[in-house]
Task: structure prediction
Amino acid sequence: MSQPILWTHAFIDRPLELFSRSCEFWSTVTDTHLSELRGEQEEFVTLLPEGADACLKVQGVVAGKAGAHLDFAVADVPTFVASALRLGAGLVTEHARWAVLRSPAGQLFCVGPWEHGESVRPPVVRGTRLDQVCLDIPPSLHDAEVAFWAALLPDWESLSGSLPEFHVLKPPAGLPVRILLQRLDEERPVSAHLDLACADIGTTRAEHERLGAEFVAEGRRWTVMRDPAGGLYCLTGRDPETGGLPSRR
Result:
């Protein structure tokens, strides 16, 4: 049986040479301040909110493109890892107290101990909340990937999205990060990006552009942006409090 998720962090993965620029942008738009730097190259930092528990971290990566990944906190790491492996995950790196895994489609994620007692979500900031990691999955792997994540997170609500290519995994009340699985139109490697729920996409877009982000494209209920460190993310027309669409709270 899989261990229940007690807290979730979304990792903002950006090129190491643009790490400082990324930290400045994301700490500003989320109204957080930076923890002390960690890692051999000082490549890790946590974005700390006032009066709440952190759920966002930034990682400077030496190789690979800008992206995102999930970091799950559980009571029993070995049990969670064993469950993930039975369901088809691959073990990438195992450390004394935490592990890096790979989903069947190839998306990296981490699991570690719940040791800080996190329980309070960061608040909505100027009508927005960074609350979702979207996995962009090639069509040939999408159904199997949805099945994997739904089985790995059995206490999360598994929902069809607003469009046929979307599937949502909604966490239990109090957890700060949702998962959206998006079926791509083409066969290419799986990737991940961040989504912000926005009360007003236009207002948020203008603020982010003032801080150095760039407009990329506009969709049905979302706007694709590029942050100053080159990472794509989306501003989505969802309720920042609930994470759902206005008609599906």
Observations:
- The mean pLDDT is 95.
- The longest helix spans residues 139-152.
- Helices lie at 19-29, 77-86, 139-152, 201-210.
- The two ends are 30 Å apart (CA to CA).
